[in-house]
Every structure is written in C-alpha cells, then in structure tokens.
Amino acid sequence: MARSPTPLRLDPDRPLILLSNDDGIDANGLAALAAALDDLGTVVVVAPATEQSAVGHAITVRDPMRAHPWPFDGPTGPLWARAVTGTPADCVKLAVQKLLPRRPDLVVSGINHGPNTAVSVLYSGTVSAATEASILGVPSFAVSHCSWDPDADFETSGRVARTVAERVLSEGLPPGVLLNVNVPDRSFDQLTGFEVTRQARARWEEEFEERRDPFDRPYYWLGGQFINLDDGLDTDLHAIKQGAVSVTPIHYDLTAYDELRRIATWNWSADALSN
Ligand code: MN
User: Fold this and answer.
1) C-alpha 53 – ligand 1 centre gap (Å)
2) Where are the domains of the chain?
3) Which end of the chain is more exposed for a tag (fewer CB within 10 A), N or C?
C-alpha cells in the first residue's frame, strides 16, 4: 500500500536543515547524511529523482520540473522529502523559493560518493547544490566521501558532516562563501583531524575511448586519471592524503581580481571596436 506523504512540521525553536545531493534521492550517502544530522534540527530532503553527478551548476529551463513526494526514512521517523526531476541546483532553488514554507537555516549537499577536490569542484553537482544555497543567501556546505568503492561506508563522513553543520550553524558564513568538505576513506578513529585548505592545482588526464554501436556508428566514453600538479602542503588533496578532513572555503565569484588592473591597461579604447 502506498504511504501517504509525510507532512512538514516546523519547530520554530529548531533550525530548518535542507539536504540535497547529486547521486539521487535514494543514494546511501544522502540517507547517511539525514541520519547524522537528524537531531540538529528539522531535516527535510529535496534531491534529484535520478543521478546527476557531474552536471555542474546546470539548471532546467526548457522542460517541466516535477517534485514528487518521496518516502524517506530518518532515524526517528519519516522525513518530509521531494524527488525533483531536475539538477542539484534546481532542487535547492525550487526548495528555497517554492517548496519550503520558510528559508532553511542550513543547506547540506551530499554525502557524495567520491571526492570533489581541486578542479572537480566545477563539474560537481554536489558542490553546485551548496553553491546555489549560497547564491540564495543560505549558509551551506558540500560533503564528499573519498571512495569509489560500491560498498562505501558513509558513517565516518556522516559524523564529520555533523561537526561541520554544528560549526556553520553556530559561526555562520560570510555572504557568498560556502564550505567544500572532503572526508578521507578511513574509519572515524583513524582521521587525523581537520585542515582548512585551498583547492590543489590538478587536472584530469582524460582519454576518450571510441567504441562502436550496433549500427557501426562511433560513440565516445570519457575516462582518465586525476593528476595532482601541486606539491603544496595546504591543499585539499594533501590533507586527504594525510588522513585529515579537508575544509575548503569557496565562492562563486570567478572574477580574477589579481588581473583586473593589468588587463585594464590593454587598449580598450572605443576605436578598438571599429577595427
Ligand atoms: Mn555524485
């Protein structure tokens, strides 16, 4: 028998915590996150109906979006949850601007199955859900578990997420700044601590494998390896390698401030337009 949708009951004395992700609403990492944050406030879930890894900050503008009531069990009972036929950024936008009766106090995205370090931040749907919250003025962080193991255990990352959530709820975050948290694949007792880091300079050494479909047409499959080009001791990749939780403050203003003045010295006279 179908369960009737869980009603949303707000408690004015407790923070409203919105969870999202990019692995999809049924992902184990999201369930672990909900379990870990349950007693910090009223936890609600608005997450993509299907996996949206590596969609970056895409939003849906040419298709209808639906938000289906979804059965989602928390540790102390069913949570209010919606599965959205859209991207992670869509989920947070729709939740904050339409679905929730008030602004959340915190948005947490994850727990992603796999790291989101260095340049991967740009491709990550997990980070983008948190970024969208930041754009909307809600404190937020993304949390990723650094393992590709299909049976990855998200318990350690859940406990870390809880600590970070407590910090962000008590300290707040400057406008436009969010935290990108990566947790090493270790048991909780084996973690060496927290490191506040910068994104490492790294890139994907990519290879497109060419294959043939049944009609003999070529298709391409992206693979490759992540190469660290940065030997700094203050990077996200270094922290994780040392067994520490990496916490990187990031922002979405991509302006290269260091270069503004230099580029402004180029010839930008109106005459240049007619040449
Ligand atoms: Mn993912």
Assistant:
1) 4
2) 16-202+231-274
3) N
CATH architecture of structural domain 16-202+231-274:
3-Layer(aba) Sandwich (3.40)
SS3 of 159, please?
helix
Q: How many residues would you count in the chain?
A: 275
Structure tokens at 54: 């590596």
How does pLDDT run across 235-251, given as a tens digit for each residue?
Answer: 999 999 999 999 999 99
3-state secondary structure (DSSP) of residue 8 = coil
Can you tell me which residue has the tokens 């859900």? 129
22 alpha carbon – ligand 1 mean position (Å): 5
Reply yes or no: is the peptide bond before residue 25 cis, omega within 30 of 0. Answer: no
pLDDT digits (tens, 9 = 90+) for 149-175: 999 999 999 999 999 999 999 999 999
User: In b/e form, how buried is each residue of 43-57, taking b as 16+ CB within 10 angstroms?
Assistant: bbbbbbbebbbebbb
